[in-house]
Q: What sequence folds into this?
């Protein structure tokens, strides 16, 4: 089947020669075509260009669905390169604790936080876990996300980590969104290992990683390398084991302190290091000339009322930036990438062009799919959305609570 979208007010983020990512000053460049068409053939983008250059045959070809876009814009779907959207229940009670003044770390120390979600997940059947996650996936599809990375990390035992990863695998099979899976056994130290953190790290290395690899359930390995969680040395050991089993690193770093996580990530050629609220000159230096994508999760800083990463300083140093939602029950219970863009603009002083690059091509890179996703380019997967009538692309992050995604096309099919 072919889909022709015609009379597009603006076709956003087009590429004639696809690139892996954009960095530094280039992040402020957003190639667009005014008054454009987009042709989709099967599940791929076949062609695009200005309306006055559109071959007449595109409209008349048999079996082509023609969508009139007048006044609407077309964007490549968002790529959300960091989420924890497979989880059981919710944690609004801790939200109240936070309102009353407890910090994220204090809640975690009391056995709440991630351990709270782990307990709930253990008590929830795999089917129920799948159904809850499916609802979240459908929600983010309607909000314009076309690719999502999902982590384990609320299992913390071999069985429960595998349960989470099987749910992710089932979502891959049963939903039209592109999914990458990440093993995050090192999300927190489970209660049974309290005071024996090193033994839990050994357990991850000797039992969990080989099992996850044997079932081929994860593309990447993650570690929460931060104050109060896992140390640099422990992180190194786990990343080495993951890499040995074919899982590239994508880690949580420098959310709560200058944890050394960024440097460890770069040392092991991580695909991305994520959070980065605590990023100074040394961290920027480590990231320069690396292949690691610095990924910001402003939804978590917003929800926890914490500092934001120095996005401008990082771009001025020539770094690329990706942004993702961190969708999870404890620090960011939202997968709304349009709101993530707004936070980038409002709280981190990023330009609309910069945030759009951060949630499309650069976040595609951060989940290892920028060859096929993250821009409008011939041969890429046809994951796009059509907006409501909007005056400009800047209106997307500006109108920060208005739902502006009207039609969603994934793999060349209208799905929402
Ligand atoms: O990315 N930082 C660690 N993990 C998550 C939070 C998980 C939770 O609190 O449930 C995050 O913020
Ligand atoms: Fe996270």
A:
């Amino acid at each position: 089947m072919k889909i022709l979208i015609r009379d597009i007010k603006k076709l956003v983020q087009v590429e004639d020669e696809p690139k892996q990512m954009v960095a530094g000053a280039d992040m402020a460049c957003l190639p667009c075509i005014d008054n454009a068409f987009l042709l989709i053939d099967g599940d791929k983008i076949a062609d695009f260009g200005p309306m006055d250059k559109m071959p007449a045959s595109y409209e008349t070809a048999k079996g082509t669905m023609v969508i009139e876009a007048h006044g609407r814009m077309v964007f490549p779907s968002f790529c959300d390169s960091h989420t924890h959207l497979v989880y059981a229940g919710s944690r609004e009670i801790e939200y109240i604790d936070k309102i009353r003044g407890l910090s994220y770390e204090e809640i975690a120390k009391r056995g709440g936080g991630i351990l709270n979600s782990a307990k709930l997940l253990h008590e929830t059947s795999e089917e129920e876990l799948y159904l809850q996650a499916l609802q979240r996936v459908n929600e983010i599809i309607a909000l314009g996300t076309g690719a999502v990375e999902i982590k384990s990390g609320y299992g913390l035992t071999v069985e429960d980590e595998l349960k989470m990863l099987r749910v992710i695998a089932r979502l891959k099979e049963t939903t039209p969104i592109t999914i990458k899976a990440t093993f995050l056994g090192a999300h927190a130290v489970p209660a049974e290992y309290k005071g024996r953190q090193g033994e839990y790290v050994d357990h991850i290395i000797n039992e969990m990683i080989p099992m996850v690899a044997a079932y081929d359930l994860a593309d990447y390995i993650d570690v929460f390398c931060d104050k109060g969680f896992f140390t640099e040395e422990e992180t190194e050991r786990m990343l080495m084991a993951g890499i040995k089993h074919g899982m590239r690193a994508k880690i949580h770093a420098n959310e709560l302190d200058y944890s050394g996580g960024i440097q460890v990530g770069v040392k092991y050629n991580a695909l991305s290091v994520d959070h980065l609220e605590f990023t100074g000159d040394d961290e920027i230096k480590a990231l320069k000339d690396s292949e690691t994508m610095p990924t910001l999760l402003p939804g978590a800083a917003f929800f926890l009322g914490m500092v934001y990463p120095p996005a401008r300083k990082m771009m001025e140093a020539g770094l690329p930036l990706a942004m993702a939602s961190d969708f999870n029950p404890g620090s960011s219970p939202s997968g709304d990438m349009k709101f993530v863009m707004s936070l980038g603009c409002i709280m981190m002083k990023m330009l609309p062009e910069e945030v759009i690059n951060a949630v499309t091509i650069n976040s595609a890179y951060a989940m290892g799919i920028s060859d096929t996703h993250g821009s409008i380019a011939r041969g890429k997967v046809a994951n796009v959305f059509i907006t409501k009538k909007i005056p400009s692309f800047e209106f997307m992050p500006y109108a920060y609570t208005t739902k502006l995604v009207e039609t969603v096309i994934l793999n060349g099919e209208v799905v929402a």
Notes: The mean pLDDT is 97. Residues 189 and 197 are 6 Å apart (CA to CA).
